[in-house]
Amino acid sequence: MTLQVPDYIRSLVPYVPGKPIEETQREYKIKKVVKLASNENPLGPSPKAVAAIRKYLSQLHRYPDASGFGLKQALSASEGVFSQNLVLGNGSNEIIDLLIRTFCVAGESIVIHRAAFVAYQICAQIHGVSTLVAPIDDGLKCNLDALIHLVKSTESVKLVFLANPNNPTGVYLSRSELDRFFREMMLIRGGSVLVVLDDAYGEYITAPDCPNPKEFLKDYPHLVILRTFSKVYGLAGLRVGYGIASAEIVALLEKVRQPFNLSSLALIGAIAALQDREFVEESLKMNQVGMKLWEAKLLAMGVPFWKSQGNFILIDAQAGFGLSGVDLFQKCLTQGVILRPVANYGLAQALRISIGTPAENQRALKVLEKLLKR
Length: 374
Prior knowledge:
Elements: H1 7-10, H2 21-28, E1 34-35, H3 47-56, H4 69-79, E2 86-89, H5 92-103, E3 109-113, H6 118-126, E4 130-134, H7 144-153, E5 157-163, H8 175-186, E6 194-198, E7 223-228, E8 241-244, H9 247-256, H10 264-274, H11 277-301, E9 305-306, E10 312-316, H12 317-321, H13 325-333, E11 337-338, E12 340-341, E13 350-354, H14 358-373
Parallel strand pairs: 1-11, 3-4, 3-5, 5-6, 6-7
Antiparallel strand pairs: 2-8, 7-8, 9-10, 10-13, 12-13
C-alpha cells in the first residue's frame, strides 16, 4: 500500500547535520577526532548555565513554565525590549517554522537568496509554501535589487528571510544596504511583507558597518529578528532561540506555538548563560584569535576564502586544492578532521570550517597543509 502524502512532502530533502564525532570514530577507527563542522562553541557550554542546570535537576518532575516568564524577563533586560516583544523557540529553527505556519498558507511564497540557510526553504516546503530565490554576486552577497524585484512582482510573497551575517558564507549586508532595503520594502504593499533578519551570529560581528538589526525595528514594524543561545553561549544541545518583533506579531506567533516547547533545563540554562559575560568575552576572544590564524594560514597556503563575520570561515576547495568541497571533506575525514561541505547550498566548490580551540585549529590546518602538499 502506498502512503498518501502531498508531493511537497515526498520530495522534501531533509536537513543534513554535521557528521557526528562518534560516527567518524567508528567508521574510520580513529580515536582522536576534531569536529569543526557545526559552528559550535569550542569552549563548551556556559559554566554558569551548567551549574544552574545541575541545581535544578531534582525538579524535573515539574512541567516547565509554559510562558517562559523568567527567560523573557532576563531577555527583556538584556535586549532592551518589552517581554511582549519576545517569542521563545526550541532553537531559532522553531521560530522559522512558526512564522511560516502563522503567516503563510499552502500555495503562497517566501523569498530567500541563493546560499541562504537551508532551514528556511525546508520549513516552507513542509507547509506547501514555495521558495523564490534571489541571486548572489561574485562575493556571495545577496543581490538586494533582485530580491526586492521578486517581492514586488509576486503577490503571493508573505515573508523574506535574510541572515546577517549569512550562514554558510559569513558575508554580511552593511547598515546602508539594509537601510535602503527597508525603505524600498516599505513601499511594497504598504510595508506588509514580513522581513525576518536572522541574527544567529550577531555576537561575533566585528565589522563596524554591520548593524544591530534592532536599529530597524522602529521604522519597519513588520521586522522579526531571530537570535539563538546555540552559538556564543554554547547551548546548542539545549535548543533555545528567540524572536524579537512587534507585540502584534508575537501575539499571533504565541497562538501557534506549542505549550512547553522549551524544557525546564533549557529555560534555566539560558537565564544563567545570559549572566555569564566572562564566558561570552572569552568565547569571542578565542574566535577572533582563531579567525586571524585561519586567515593568515590560508593566505600563506594560497587557499582562497571569504571574509567572515561569524564563527566559521568558508574556503574555496576547488581553487585551493583542485577538489570539490565534498571530496576535500572526505579526505579530511580519513585524517580525523570533520569539516562541512556545502554543496546543498549550491556551493559545490566550497567547504565551511568552524573556528575551534587553538589545538583543534592547528590539527585541522596540519591536515589541510598535508593534503595541499600531495
